[in-house]
Every structure is written in structure tokens, then in C-alpha cells.
Amino acid sequence: MPEELADNYGLAKIETTKQIAAPDLPYQPRNPKTYNPPIGLIGCGGISSQHLNAYKLAGFNVVALCDRNEHKARERQQQFYPDAFVTTDYRDVLKRDEIEVVDVTPHPADRIPIIEDAITTGKHILSQKPFVTDLDVGERLIEFANKRGIKLAVNQNGRYAPHFSYIRNVIRAGLIGDIVSTNFTLHWDHNWIIGTPFEEIHDLILYDFGVHWFDMMACIFGQREAKRVQAITVRGIGQKARPPMLASALIEFDGGIASLHFNANVTHGQQDRTYVAGSRGSIESIGPSLSEQAVTLYTADGFAKPDLQGTWFLQGFHGTMAELLCAIEEDREPHNNARTNLRGLALCFAAIASASQGMPKVPGSIRKLPIR
Prior knowledge:
Blueprint: H1 3-9, H2 11-16, E1 38-42, H3 48-58, E2 61-66, H4 70-79, E3 85-87, H5 90-94, E4 101-104, H6 108-120, E5 124-128, H7 135-148, E6 152-155, H8 162-172, E7 179-187, H9 205-209, H10 211-221, E8 226-234, E9 246-253, E10 256-263, E11 271-278, E12 281-287, E13 294-299, E14 302-304, H11 312-330, H12 338-357
């Protein structure tokens, strides 16, 4: 590329910007100062091993494990908390007065009565994501929890993955100014779903997987409301899984724009990239996977490359529970509270409806998860 053309596009300026020390930001999970209550885990399916592994390493006090299949609960007991009480009825967990916090992991439809009963019995709650499939049900649960003085948080663990947590803290500190655009581009292999119940979800990529990125989009743009969402899903050439493995969404904010591009059928050369551009700087994260990410921050002072430690699963699951416990100790709303989670779900539901109907949708106007 000719030098004068590079100057016009600003490429030469980027190449000569000096490297500076990375800002020291609190991206790692923060445990409560003294509060470490007895915790009950309800639902010992596959994802529960990630919860319990993170909790054990964090030093959290899990005292009860529940699953309708006793073998699953016993297996988790032997793996992580040998002294934990085991039951097949979640009501046995809620009856135990010493338990102050419950982690509720079953699928959304099964979670609703458990969350309702947990609120009634005065337990603080960490709900697995996606929180609900109906925004009105989510609002009702939030209001019920508020009336009872219960902290209701959501295990949106991507927020606490090291690279996303650092990005959130950069934005919160005002280091890149007002957000103008955000782009998520992911190329990965999601074919592990073949032969599992997940293969029956038509909008799997936008919903079960993409909900992490819709949630991050809501976090990045803060209180700025999205005006409309347009999305598409496509079956890729040669794909073997049943759901469309290609999906894209474009979201319009007041004075900003965001895009998500997913290809879940990439077997070689996988890449996960995030780019956030603000009015006074930018930040990007790039790597071959969720847990292998290199972050670069660009400002007028130069560029910085923080040396981040941790992984999506370990720090992510640690972070969601730690934030709930800190909120209880400090008597405040957790940052991962259920109400903030509804904003990401509204984006997700609108995107799925847009992909189904071929037209833009206003976030919040689609109250239930579209099923097709």
C-alpha cells in the first residue's frame, strides 16, 4: 500500500503509536471480605461441574447438591464436595435454614417454580442463563424478589471472562469515551451438539450460544436503548448439524451500531474477535477460543497490552457467584442482577424474530422467545 494512502487511512499512525503500560483494572473476580454462606446447588447436569470447580477453587461453601437423578448428584459430591448433603427434591434444599444462597441450573422452564419457591423461602438466587424465555415472567420474578428483599442474579458468566471483564472495566473507567460501534466475530466448531438435545433448537446459535454476546452488547452500551435489530440465519454449505450454523445480527443504538457474526462450523483456523470503538479510543480482543484471548487498548497516549490471567470457565463462573455474594454482604444490587439481564434477552429475542420474519424488530417488542 502506498505511504500516502496508508496515511489517509490512518494505518501509519497506528503502526508508530508507542506502547504504554496497561491500566491496572479490577477485572478478576472479587470475593466478599468475610461473607461465605452455605450454598445449595440445584441441578447437577453437565454445566454444574464448571460451577462447582470454580466454587471449590474460590473457597465457596457448597453444603447441598440436588438433582432428580441421584447418581448425578452423588457424582458431583464425590468430585467436589464430599461432605455435601444430597437429595433428589429441591424443596429439601430450600427447607434447610442454614442455606442462604441457591444456584439454580436446570433449563428455563424447569427453573421458574424453583426460583419462585426459593424467593418464598428467603434464599438469594443465582439463576443459570438464559434467565427466562418470557420477558414478562422475568419482570414478575424480579418484582417478587424485590418485595421479599431477595438478591436475584444471573449466571451470565461471559461478563467475568478475563477479556470481557477487562473490556467492561475499560468502558466503566471512561478510557475510550462513549461507545460508537462494537463488533463480535466468531468462527468456531460447535458440532459437539450433534446427537444431543441442543440439536433440536433451530435458533441455537443466536439463542443458547449468542445470548452471551447479546448480554455483553447490552453491558457495553450501558443504559443506551437499542432502537432496532435485524438478523439472519443460514445453513452453511457442508454443515452436518441440524440448526443453521451461520448467523448475523445488526443492532442500531442512538449514535452507535453493533454487529455480531457467527460461523459455528469452522474446523480449522478458529478465531474469536471483539472490537469496541469509542469516541476517545478503542479496545480489541482476539484469539482462537473463548479462553485464549489477547487484548489491546488504543488511546491517544498509545497502545497497551494487558497480561490477563484466567479462563472463561474458571473466572466466569467464579465471578458470577462472587458478585452475588459481595452484593449480599454490601447490601446492594449485584451487577449481574436479573433486570440488567433482561436487556440482553430483549436483543436476543428481537434478533430471532427478525431472522424468522425477515424484517427489523424493536427490542422489547418481542416478549417471548420465538420458537420455530
